[in-house]
Specification:
Elements: H1 19-23, H2 32-38, H3 40-48, E1 59-64, E2 67-72, E3 75-76, H4 78-88, E4 95-100, E5 106-110, H5 111-127, E6 135-139, H6 144-156, E7 159-162, H7 169-179, E8 183-187, E9 190-192, E10 195-197, H8 199-210, E11 216-220, E12 248-250, H9 251-254, E13 267-268, E14 272-277, E15 287-291, H10 293-306, E16 314-317, H11 324-336, E17 340-344, H12 355-363, E18 367-370, H13 372-381, H14 384-387, E19 396-399, H15 406-416, E20 423-425, E21 460-463, H16 471-480, E22 487-493, E23 503-504, H17 508-516, E24 527-531, E25 537-542, E26 547-549, E27 552-554, H18 556-564, E28 569-579, E29 583-592, H19 602-614, E30 622-625, H20 639-646, H21 660-674
Parallel strand pairs: 4-17, 6-7, 6-8, 7-14, 8-11, 11-12, 16-17, 16-18, 18-19, 19-20, 29-30
Antiparallel strand pairs: 1-2, 3-13, 4-5, 9-10, 14-15, 15-23, 21-22, 22-24, 24-25, 26-27, 28-29
Helix pairs in contact: 2-3, 4-5, 4-6, 4-11, 5-6, 7-8, 10-11, 13-15, 18-19, 20-21
The structure holds adenosine-5'-triphosphate and magnesium ion.
Length: 675
Amino acid sequence: MSDTLDTLLSESRHFPPSAEFTSSARVSDPDIYDQALADSLAYWEGWAKKLDWFEPWQEVLHWELPHAQWFVGGKLNACYNCVDRHVVQGRGDRVAIVWEGEPGDVQTITYAELQKSVAQIANALKQLGVRKGDRVCIYMPMVPELAMTMLACARMGAAHSVVFGGFSAESLQERTNDAQAKVIVTADGGWRRGGIVPLKAITDQALRLGCPSVQHVLMLERAGPEGTWTQGLATPSYDRGEWVEGRDVAWREIVPTQSTECPCEPMDSEDLLFILYTSGSTGKPKGIVHTTGGYLTGVYATTQWVFDLQDSDLFWCTADCGWVTGHSYVVYGPLANAAKILMYEGAPDTPSKDRFWKIIEKHQVTILYTAPTAIRTFMKWGEEWPQGCNLSSLRLLGSVGEPINPEAWIWYHENIGRGRCPIVDTWWQTETGHIMISPLPGITTTKPGSATRPFPGIEAVIVDEQGVDLSTQHLAEVRAGTATGDCGGILAIKRPWPGMLRGIFGDPERYKATYWSRFDGMYFPGDGAKLDSEGYFWLLGRVDDIMLVAGHNISTMEVESALVDHPAVAEAAVIGKQDAIKGQGIAAFVIIKADVESQDGLVEELRKHVAAKIGAIARPDVIYLCADLPKTRSGKIMRRLLRDVAEGRALGDTTTLADASVVASLKEQYESLEG
Ligand code: ATP
Ligand code: MG
């Protein structure tokens, strides 16, 4: 077995930033990278000083592996930094949130209004018995009140655990109990694809399953006829659940009557800010713990530099607040920067497949941050949808969540960015809290499919199975101009960083075992990566998914990208499947574009295409054309379930699976083909 990761794909297209972009960029001096690493503590301290602290810290970092404390002894409040300080600085009239509901209703909320609403929600939570140090579970649609409730928790010193509104009663129950939440904040329902997701009824079901810590359910009326700001909308019928007197409390009865004054609780830098579960792509989700000072510093810095945030921007991160991307780049990062954000409640294809583009045109969105899964879906739908809209307000695009295949990057660049907008492909995790590897759009020449280089202050390396550093030597060669070829292996992070997770809630052993035991003194994210001959990082997919074919370690990402490179292919998932001769054979599940007729010979053509593009070793042994792929509720391909299907095993943890029927029909298709 080889010890490093073979790298096959080579991508030579380069996209330098335009002189115009660089001239007005937030950061344009490439020396910043060396400066930040020369004294990373001083560098992060510089960022922390841009936040408002009630009391200063005594020490920047206290690090005893695996436990980090950042800005030790400092006191601050995350809500104060995201809301109040902007009002205090005279920017209360500035728009904070532009919100659009799926039926087309719109709200615009200024920072001054946000402050008042958040204070009222915090006071209501207090009235329901929530105290500093308690946990609150939030199970809501993407309405402004979701972001406001997160901020209200932070304001009064309670930690939130946001559960994505697409999760089942079982998942809600499990997460509520894990956090021992005192209150669940929910809504009667939220709009999705023209229907109503009955959130309150699902909450009721979770409570029937048993949530002993929950004392109250606070319910916002978003869907129902009483919903004060949904008047005039004809609501489809939906399950409104039950009403348990004493337990259930209507938002309209308790929130608007509260005082609009509520002091921001001074929190220790290391006090819990939130718990959030990972997506569950590789196994059972982990309840990740984030604290206040370091996290806020990290999201503040990365939002400002990676997205080149300017006063005039309208920033739309399409992630739901149920994911870390929604925490860091819908709420905390942008609002700490006094940004104007856009929030959208519903689906991208309601009422038609150009909904996103219509939203951009209507509100003049300038920055769009979305996921490869969405981009590949847009590719599948066809470019005529964005073509019909004016997207000239856009100036920067971002991607997060999975490796972006080079062809998807190019599609995004041409059809959405219209060739003008830089793309920032940002690698990070629920655990890292904020972006770790990404271009800086005023500095970095981008290459389709590469997340380019670590954010200033972050030190990432590539190591082999034993943890031996392969990249330092390679990077020295890059600097000397003598590097040839790629250096493939496993990604590791060397120095602590401010937004790093502080643990897995209630499970210190799993925390140490998962992240800090694989390599000595380094954080193990679980992703494969390579450095190319110019020193660019390429994320190659999960270490768990790497295929061992005839003695070569091959990443799923490169084979998938070679498939997506074919004009007929919209999306592909590749797995290693037991093979008596080669160890593993390559099986590919492929979705073809909407306008392509499935022709005879396409499968053979695709196999040849991969072989021609990246080499015969990577030629898939079998290709299945399918209508859909199993994905997490955050939209990531779940290759482990495809492996279970291909190897005839019972399916592993499926609680995070978005649509169970997809795997069921794949299983059927697979079994009928295999006979
Ligand atoms: P689980 O940890 O439960 O398996 P998950 O890893 O999908 O779920 P997240 O924290 O949502 O949970 O996702 C982080 C992972 O997403 C990263 O480890 C990486 O594999 C992938 N990822 C995120 N952004 C990128 C990117 N820009 N390029 C490549 N991969 C990315
Ligand atoms: Mg993960």
